Amino acid sequence: MTLRVVVIGAGAMGRAWIRTVADDPDVDLAGVADLNLDAATEAAGEGVPAARDGVALAKETGADAVIDVTVPAAHHPITTEALFAGLPVLGEKPVAETVTQALSLVAAAEVTGELFMVSQSRRYNPHLWALRAHARVFGRPGLLTTEFFKAPRFGGFRDAMEHPLLLDMAIHPFDTARFVLEAEPVSVYCEEHNPPWSWYAGDAAATATFEMTGGVRYVYTGSWCSPGLETSWNGAWRLSAEHGTAVWNGDDPPVSSRAGEVETADPGFEIAGALRAFTHALRTGDVPMGEVHGNVMSLVMVEAAVQSASTGARVRVDDVLEHAYELAIAAEPRAEVRDALHSWTSVREALKA
């Protein structure tokens, strides 16, 4: 049987998900929801129900799951409502607007027993999997770097953001670094600035140095306003390890200092790969990449980097986690979710579940 889903959000990304659902033989579109009902109706197409309330529409149509493609501020309320309605959720990144909300969603998934998977779509790229395969055969890693230089003129909310690069884009390479190194962040020192020609109100350039578990360093340098000789949207990567080096330009297969090929896999490509993984997880019970417990640390990296850039100090990731955990308990309106949060003996350990 096919998986019947309601897509919540009918903007440009929502329409991309609708096309992806249409192209997947294992998934059917049960409905489209958006606060703008005209946009939802147009995106849904002929014969597909549309509504303003996506969770209500999913229940009315008997859908099996929802795909949340709303703005980050809506991720927490919509995902919480869907989980407690008995609906698995595949959500766009970031998992939530803040780490505090993300921890609440981890607990909500535990309480309801429903799958909540975040689509970190850049992980679904065979060249990235090849880079990780190189990392696995090169022994102990010492340094992983990313350069990201683009000059998009989006207009709209990004131009007014306080930290446009870190908040809107850096979560992709931060999450990728965790994937390649198979390591977690320990601390970060980050500096931001805004080049004098920038068309962004907030700082559009940043350099962040993360200490990761095992002592390896991950260094990210990027700019949202760097015209000419731009990098791939995936960035340009270099891995330096005990027994070799690999570089990846973000578009083509990685190049290695060692002869011979490495074994890799076909994860699918971007959001189509994420949808395939979500469907497989629901059918088999396997834990997919992006399951909420495993995804939160990517958002923690962003929040820690922003805090470091704002204070000018190195930030310990565990301090960010503990503060968010205290706020999550204080702000949580659902008693069962608060109880789940209280049951955690360690936030780090809870996120490994």
Overall strand count: 14
Q: What percentage of the residues does DSSP assign to strands (E)?
A: 15-25%
What is the number of helical segments per DSSP (H or I, 4+ residues)? 14
Could you give the order of strands across the largest sheet? 13-12-11-7-10-9-8-14
Q: Give the termini distance in whole angstroms.
A: 29 Å
Shape: globular
Helical percentage: 40-55%
CATH H-level homologous superfamily name of the largest domain: NAD(P)-binding Rossmann-like Domain
Largest sheet: 8 strands, mixed
Number of domains: 2
Could you spell the SSE succession in H and E letters? EHEHEHEHEHEHEHHHEEEEEEHHEHHH
CATH fold type of the largest domain? Rossmann fold
So what's the CATH class of the largest domain? Alpha Beta
State the secondary-structure class: alpha/beta
CATH architectural group of the largest domain: 3-Layer(aba) Sandwich
Residue-averaged pLDDT: 96
Pfam families: GFO_IDH_MocA, GFO_IDH_MocA_C3
Domain Gfo/Idh/MocA-like oxidoreductase N-terminal: 3-118
InterPro entries: Gfo/Idh/MocA-like_OxRdtase_N, Gfo/Idh/MocA_Oxidoreductases, GFO_IDH_MocA-like_dom, NAD(P)-bd_dom_sf
Protein name: Dehydrogenase
Question: How is this fold's topology laid out?
Answer:
Blueprint (H helix, E strand, L loop, with lengths): L2 E6 L3 H12 L3 E7 L3 H8 L5 E2 L2 H8 L3 E4 L3 H13 L4 E4 L6 H14 L3 E4 L6 H12 L3 E9 L7 H4 L3 H5 L2 H11 L3 E9 L11 E8 L4 E7 L12 E6 L2 E5 L6 E2 L13 H15 L7 H20 L3 E2 H15 L3 H8 L4 H4 L3
Parallel strand pairs: 1-2, 1-4, 2-3, 4-5, 5-6, 7-10
Antiparallel strand pairs: 7-11, 8-9, 8-14, 9-10, 11-12, 12-13
Helix pairs in contact: 4-5, 5-11, 5-12, 5-13, 6-9, 9-11, 12-13
